[in-house]
Amino acid sequence: MPTWQQLRDVKLSEYTDAADGWGKVSSRANADKDRVDNHMFAKIHETQKGETADKAGGDVRQLSRNYQYLHTECGLVRTALNGLAAELAAPQKKLKQALEDAENLKFTVKPDGSVSYPTQSYVLKGDQTAHDGAPFPYLPGKAEGIGSGDENKGKAEDIAQRIGDAVREATEIDGRYAAALRQLKAEPGLTVSDETLADAARDTKAMQGAAGKYADDDKIPHGKSPKENADWWNGLTQEQRDEYATLYPASIGALDGIPSAVRDDANRMVLAETRAQTQLDLNAIPKQPQEYLPNPSGSYPAVIKNPEWREWNEKYGDRKKELEADLKGMNAIQDRFDRTGRAEKPGERPLPEAYLLGFDTQGNGHAIVANGNPDTATHTAMYVPGTTSNLEGIGGDIKRMETLWRASDNLAGGQSVSTITWLGYDAPQDIVKDAPFSHYANDGAPKLNAFVDGLRATHQGDATHLTVTGHSYGSTVIGSAARQGTLHADDIFVAGSPGMQVGSATDLDVPKGHVYAAEADSDPYLKGLRLPGSPLDMLTDDKYGGFNIPFVTSDPVPDIGGWGHAPKKVDIDVLPSWIDGDGQSVVKTLTPTNPDFGAHIVATDGSRGHSGYWDNGTESLNNQARVVTGRYKEVTAQ
């Protein structure tokens, strides 16, 4: 427990000066990590091949982990020292004021914190003078002097009380930070293991508890608009920004309206620690027993279910699948980081730096990955994936935006391009059971609008030309965003859309003529409902009028989804139970590729199936790139 003399004499500036030093180390480590991630990997693969490249790549990846750990731990030390200094300032001020009052009253503060005082002067007889009173020790909860005939006794007690309060407050602060600082120890050696990174996450949590009064997560504007987030961020000092990003990386990484580089640093910290803990959790699961065993009786069946496997599967089966799914997605994100600066073909421009603008493993998992910095890009395209999208499969969505980046960069004439995979919502996971329902889109739409507004808030210089692209159910999210709020995009491009909850392109917030829709020949849409009733009812055979209605084609997404998400147009006031002789629909779903919707229906030559719109060399990809870069006159029509 510190003494009042130690509290009085401590130089808080020494703590803040030391914090500055640790902060510089943290910042340098982060810059070094960025250099490793964005330059060294590419150089290795330019100069080395085969096993040599793999070995060197592994060493460099380890170096990146080391810098990540240094950045985190040194940042925590900086925050601890700054927090300690900031919190000790209040009790030190309280103590110094009490000491000053004692000095002004000619009281004496003893080493143990007790206070001696002179009795009040009064005339008794003749020339008698006042005498010193006995020292008044600090007695918690007592105030004998207050209200007594001797006012000095009450004043002395008040001073002793304030001294004791200040020392106790300082003791609590010192103990809180000391406990957290003691945890900031690394194992000897140059290898930052999964265990070390997982320990860093625990260190962060411990420091959150220690420094919560100094930098509180509640002070972060959760649930506010991107503009309010930006105003809060811009009102902080750089040191405060660094401390919030270190202490609460998940909260800062999710905050629309603050710079992409800041969100990337914070989310990479979360990714590294979560990935390490996930691997450790997987390693802790016992080895799976053999599922089938030979039947010991030798009779039929020849094999039986292993009881040990049943027990293992009940206890670990689902958990193992969840961890493996999360790890697969995180590895795909890390793989994108590792490919920064690399070109797929000779003469091709290398991939730009990647930015992780969102990440968590809640539910089916979420990730937002950008190719190039959207805060400085002349042209930005963000892609909303559709049904079955989740963290486990994020690799395919990331690759699509890489392909679009290359195609757009080739047309940009030297202007900068950023393409973003936005898996920031909970997508439906089953085409039949989930995709026909709109609540996934309705829940995700406000998040999409907030992210777009955040891009607008953080962009430097002239506003970026922003295209929002939706695939399959992702287009429904885009339509819902425009319907529920305002989608501040310049262009909308949708592919394989089951419907957008609006009946006209003019309802989508972008300027007239800036909605584009693609539908490949092998991704067929039935333009209308053949029969009245629920689309799920029509999945049956011939109960309607004795006809077998071909409601479901080779791609059920538009067929089922179109009736869940697209307004309908009735051509005649009759609803027969079969298609008329001309093959025309009685009721049409107003999907974006219906001419009545009002979008530009673009050519898709070369695209195959429901997911081929981003295949290299296809006209659908080329048309997307033309829209992304504003080369509208070159867009080819279907």
TrEMBL record:
Give residue spans, biased composition: Basic and acidic residues. Answer: 214-230
- The region called Disordered is annotated at 210-230
UniProt domain DUF1023: residue ranges: 360-523
> Pfam families this protein is in?
Abhydrolase_8
Q: Name the SUPFAM superfamilies for this protein.
A: alpha/beta-Hydrolases
Protein name, as recorded: DUF1023 domain-containing protein
